[in-house]
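Figure 3 (text version): C-alpha cells given as input.
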C-alpha cells in the first residue's frame, strides 16, 4: 500500500460527487480497525456489510500518540489488513466514556461476535490488555474510551 493508492481512492470518491459537494473541501485521515492484519480484515468486513457502525479506542492511546481526537464530520479512508483502501467513513458521533459505562446499544453497534455486551466486554478487555502494554498502561474497568459512531459514505 502506498500513499498514492489512498490518494487515488480519495480522488475516485471525489470524482463520483457533484462539484458542489462539501466533501471537496474536506481532508481525510487513514484508518483501520484492530492491531493485526487478520483482525483488521475481519473488522473491515463487518463495516462493509453494515454490521459494524461504531468503534472505540483507549483515550490513553490517543494521548500517547499525540493524535487529535475524532470529531463529528471527520472523514476516514478505511484500510484492510494489507493496507488497501476499501471504503470511506464519516464520524457521526464521538463520546468519551469509561469501559464499564459502555452499554448494550454501543456494544451491538460495534458489530462483533454475538453482538452482546458480555461478548464486547470480554473481547475488548483482551484487546486493551494487549495493546496498552506498548504505552506502559494496564487495562482498567474505569479506563476512558473514545467511542465513535460512523457511517459509510463510499465503497
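Below: residues designed for each position.
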Amino acid at each position: 500500500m502506498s500513499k498514492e493508492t489512498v490518494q487515488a481512492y480519495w480522488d475516485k470518491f471525489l470524482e463520483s460527487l457533484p462539484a458542489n459537494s462539501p466533501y471537496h473541501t474536506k481532508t481525510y485521515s487513514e484508518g483501520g480497525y484492530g492491531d493485526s492484519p487478520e483482525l483488521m480484515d475481519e473488522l473491515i468486513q463487518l463495516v462493509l456489510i453494515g454490521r459494524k457502525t461504531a468503534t472505540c479506542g483507549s483515550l490513553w492511546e490517543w494521548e500517547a500518540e499525540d493524535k487529535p481526537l475524532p470529531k463529528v464530520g471527520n472523514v476516514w479512508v478505511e484500510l484492510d489488513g494489507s493496507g488497501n483502501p476499501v471504503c470511506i467513513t464519516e464520524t457521526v458521533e464521538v463520546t468519551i466514556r469509561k469501559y464499564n459505562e459502555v452499554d448494550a446499544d454501543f456494544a451491538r453497534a460495534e458489530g462483533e461476535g454475538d453482538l452482546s455486551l458480555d461478548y464486547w466486554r470480554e473481547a475488548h478487555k483482551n484487546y486493551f490488555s494487549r495493546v496498552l502494554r506498548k504505552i506502559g498502561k494496564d487495562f482498567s474497568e474505569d479506563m476512558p474510551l473514545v467511542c465513535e459512531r460512523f457511517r459509510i459514505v463510499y465503497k
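The two ends are 17 Å apart (CA to CA).
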